Amino acid sequence: MTEARPFTPDWVSPPGDTIEDLLEEHEWTKAEFAERIGFTPKYVNDLVKGRAAISADAAGRLSLVLGSTTEFWLSREAQYRAALGHKCT
Q1: Model confidence over 26-59: pLDDT tens digits?
Q2: Residue 13 DSSP SS3
Q3: For residues 80 and 13, is the Cβ–Cβ distance under 8 A?
């Protein structure tokens, strides 16, 4: 029997991937989502592409509109940014 190894991917995905998956589930466009969450379409696009970081305010809004907790979104963001910093060194 082979010993199971922990899954340790050598890639990182932005929290925007999760946002896009949830938008698809809800069948919302980014423009519809921007209106629901109270952000500009440009800011939503920057969030999805990983160009804008998820702030505490954004995390709170994401939790209200898409679900999960504020802490989930902040943690997802922190892990993504930490991985980017690690890859750059």
Answers
A1: 999 999 999 999 999 999 999 999 999 999 999 9
A2: coil
A3: yes
- In the chain the domains, ranked by start, together with CATH numbers, are 27-88 (1.10.260.40)
**Phi (first) and psi of residue 3, to 5 degrees:** -75, 135
Tokens of 11: 């890639």
Q: Average model confidence (pLDDT) for the chain?
A: 89
Structure tokens, 8: 């340790």
What's the residue count for the chain? 89
- Cα 71 from chain centroid? 12
Cβ(15)–Cβ(30) under 8 Å? no
Measure the N-to-C terminal CA separation of the chain; round to a whole number of Å. 38
Give the whole-angstrom CA distance, residue 85 versus residue 71: 21
